[in-house]
Amino acid sequence: MLFTIIFTWAQVEAPHYLGLALTALTKYVEQYFNPATRATASMDDFYQALKLMLIFFILNAIIMLFTWVITSRFNAHSTNNMRENLFSKLQKMTIKYFDTHQDGKILSLFNSDLDNIFNAMNNAVFEVISQTALFIGTIWMMFRIDVRLALVTVASTPFVVVLSWIIMRKARKYLDAQQDEISNLNGYINEQINGQKVIITNGLQEESVEGFKVYNKKVRDAMFKGQFYSGILFPMMQGLSVLNLSIVIAMGSLWVVDGTYSRAVGLGLIVTFVQYSQTYFQPLTQLTSIYSMIQLALTGGRRLATIEEQAEENQVPTGQELKSLEKGVKLEDVHFGYNENKEILHGINISVNKGESVALVGPTGSGKTTVMNLLNRFYDVTGGKVTFDDVDVRDLTLESLRNNVGIVLQDSILFSGTVADNIKYGKPNASQKEIEEAAKQANIHDFIMTLPQGYNTEINDENSVFSTGQKQLISIARTILTNPPFLILDEATSNVDTVTEEKIQKAMDAVIAGRTSFVIAHRLKTIINSDKIVVLKDGKVLEEGNHEELLKEKGFYYNLYTNQMAFE
Amino acid sequence: MQILMAHFKNYKKEVLSAIISIFIVAFVAVWQPRLLQYVLTAIVQDNQVEVRNYGIQLIILALVGIIAGIVNVYSAARVAQGVTSDLREEVYTKIQNFSFGNIEKFSTGSLVVRLINDMNQVTNMIMTIFMQVFRVPLILVGAFILGIITVPRLWWLEVLMVVLIMGITAIIFKKLGSLFDKVQNLMDKINTQAKENLQGVRVVKSFNQEGQEINKFNQTSDTLNNVNLKIGYLFSTVIPSFELIAYVIIAAAIYLIGGSILEHPSDIAVISSYVTYIMQLLYAIMIGSFVMSIFARGGVSLKRIKEVLETQPDVVFKDDIPAEELDGDVEFDNVTFAYPDADKPILKNISFKVKSGEMVGIVGATGSGKSSLAQLLPRLYDPTEGTVRIGGHDLRDVNEKSLRDTVSYVLQRAILFSGTIASNLRQGKADATNYELERASQIAQAQEFISRYKDTFDHEVEERSSNFSGGQKQRLSIARGVVGKPKILILDDSTSALDAKSEKLVQEALEKELKDTTTFIIAEKIVSVMNADKIIVLDNGRLVAQGTHQELLENSPIYQEIYATQKAREKAGDIIE
């Protein structure tokens, strides 16, 4: 800021000395050619002014260097901060947000919005500050030198401001529309290409292109208008600046001619004010030339701000530490709905004693996955409570709760990195031996050893090193390595062959053994082997007991079992 | 650049008016200081008539500048938007001609980025071309020449300035290019990390790895920051040093003019415009470096777009084959297939024949090549060796539309598009009547839940079809597959989320309603295909046995083994679906 002021001062002073130098030179010439004053004619004033001008110029450049270095540091670091803050904010946000917002839209914050902001900062922040300072500085200097000419110079300003305000409003409207249309097009393309197999096999390519054209045309029209309105600001300002210049010259020379100013003074003044009129308009011109950039950055800023406003997970910093599980886990009269007006669980009671394995079965939509979401607080109950060793989960520190709860999800997720990185994901400091041990228990070690680079093979979620079943084994190994006392397993619906299924079954047995566990079960063997089966239907516990007991009841479970229905 | 040239042709008028107007704008910019100089000279000489004349000229020049500027923006925006959206359409159409192999190679995400982000960079570049590129050399040359005309004896000052500045530019831009490359790569990496983090948000949270994720992300972000800083510092030194050079030159010029003012007293009036010319030179060079940085980025994007356009589709349908009705006979003749870039074939020497109307089961372990085999039928890929024939025709010699009408492929992963149930089902047959939709959903056992919606087939399918369960999605996807009464239907494990009872109902309905349809059912469980007319057993990419369930039980040791294990486990109550 200080630099900016000095910089502006230097920039405003320099033309002043240029004017002084010219006045001095003119005086010298006049005196020299006038025989009466020739003897006293001296170039000293000229050299003096020139020297000062040069000093201010150099000062100008040096200050500019400093300011640029500082601002580019500031811009890079603050964008970096914004990016890192955004990411860590995302880490703190609730699952609910991610369940209800498209990944693609969140990602565009990193790709496009932060980029827009960085661009605008690089080109605009320094510009806006220095141009505003320059604007004020110029006005001050002009009025100090000559009030009359200064008034002439600023006379057209109200007109210019109103005109540009009208255009800017239009531009803003269309730039906003442009962003909306781009994100619609983005959504369309994303969906189409993700479903490309359907498009190819149904021969829908032409239809897809037709649909694309509609979105593309909207983008084209909106972008054209946005660019046109934000684009014409610059040439208009430039032209107006020249017009203003002519006014200054006209008035100046008029006053020289009618004798208000002496010729030498008048000429110097006109030259100075020609410079000032340009410096005066420069801020307006420059700011309008980067207007669309600023506008896009403001849009990006707004979008970032909406993320910043999102609720965070309550970490319960003052809560109790869950050291390990001593008694067991209970759901007591649990009510829950994702939306306020639609309750999904209607008063559920389930208890899992330490060392027990409980299987949760029931048809689609009965609320099994929802129960899982409540156990490690992806969501919080709306009524009743979930307790670990009789302590409400909301009174435990979130970190200690999740450290004690291991989860194997139905859809296995791999991260870019090596196989080893993926297995030790929950325990980054695990030794190679521990990793291999976990992989052996999960029945995936042998396969990993057949890979060319073994545990160091680079993988990601998209490439096909692992089949669906093998991915699941990796995620089981991941959980085994962290050795959690309480386990939630969401069995995958069987899309795997019998050999892999056998392996998964064994891995599941290995991971369940000796732990307290909660299984959303699809395999009958898992169900039969569990200590307790809970049948869930329409958000209520329908039946509860072990396999034999439930069969004897001849109720819903019995029907499921005898009709060979899936435990979806 | 050739890619752009081809599209510029369609906007000749706009291109022309953009170029003409930018010449006018440049002329105005260069001529204006000269007029200013005339006015000032006239003032010095006390010539009021000339002052007025030149003053009016100056005003006209300004008005011309405004009009030309607006025309320029209008034409440039037209060209930029026109060319970019045409190019985007060309790329999208090209992608629609890709085989699935092509798309996998690029990855969906990258294609989307190319169509959106890279296209925006191209728009910027085109705008820059028509608003700056033509102007910069004009102003550069114009200011240079007029500067020399104004004070001819100081020509060497200007030359010195240009040489100095060009030298600095050359050194710095070489560095800048490689830095921009790094930025692009790091942006990719940031994108991937954030994407994976969002995808795996439940894993991250349940393993308490938020901190670790932040560290990982920050590492990449900091690396990007360092590159950005380097770019920033480069620019920070460039611009002030340009200015310094210009300032010193200006001071030197004034000093020299002042020193010889007695020989050339009229030079007083030209000092101001001379200074303006030098500043214009500087300005042009600075804009030039700005333009070059946009070009550096736009160039990278164009290269990425070109990559898409120059990719040859793996599978190309011949244009000159007339559409004809195919029947449902299928023949695999010694087919070997390897995925592009794979070193080992996934299918080896597969031969079998299927008669129209038969039901064929394909069984085998994960990775044995079942889906790969099925994907050859709708020609998602071409075999590496051997021939696939439908109705006696080599698939490579079949009209695309005929093939699409004949073969219907229901995928393992049910994909629906946002819209309505009807719009999704009609993807299988564009002109399907309501009756046909109902019939298809009855076959797929979807009619029951569809009829429960008030708006039945007009019920909305939300983004990512989040308002349907897995089983419902599969049913809709099957309905889409059968609505067109295809001659050949492939169900690629597409009933995995259906219970055993519904699966059986679907099969029975297929047998009854689509009697003449050749149906391929890919299944993990033999139970699912026991009633098939023919079962094909794959093992490690080889066809190891084929026949009916009974025949295979008698002849095929592998089949016997699979069946025995499955049966044993079923008895133990293990397999229930």
Automatic annotation (TrEMBL), chain B:
Record keyword Nucleotidyltransferase present: no
Domain of life (superkingdom): Bacteria
TM ranges: 15-34, 54-74, 129-149, 155-173, 244-262, 274-296
All residue ranges annotated as the ABC transmembrane type-1 domain in the record: 18-297
GO terms under cellular component: plasma membrane
Single GO term (MF): ATP binding
Domain ABC transporter: 330-565
Keyword Transport among UniProt keywords: yes
Subcellular location: Cell membrane
Principal place of residence: membrane
Pfam families: ABC_membrane, ABC_tran
Alphabetized Gene3D superfamilies for the sequence: ABC transporter type 1, transmembrane domain (1.20.1560.10), P-loop containing nucleotide triphosphate hydrolases (3.40.50.300)
Swiss-Prot/TrEMBL keywords: ATP-binding, Cell membrane, Membrane, Nucleotide-binding, Transmembrane, Transmembrane helix, Transport
Membrane topology: Multi-pass membrane protein
Entries under InterPro entries matching the protein: AAA+_ATPase (IPR003593), ABC1_TM_dom (IPR011527), ABC1_TM_sf (IPR036640), ABC_transporter-like_ATP-bd (IPR003439), ABC_transporter-like_CS (IPR017871), P-loop_NTPase (IPR027417), Type_1_exporter (IPR039421)
PANTHER family: ATP-BINDING CASSETTE SUB-FAMILY B MEMBER 10, MITOCHONDRIAL, ATP-DEPENDENT PERMEASE MDL1, MITOCHONDRIAL
Protein name: ABC transporter ATP-binding protein
Species in which this protein is naturally found: Ligilactobacillus salivarius
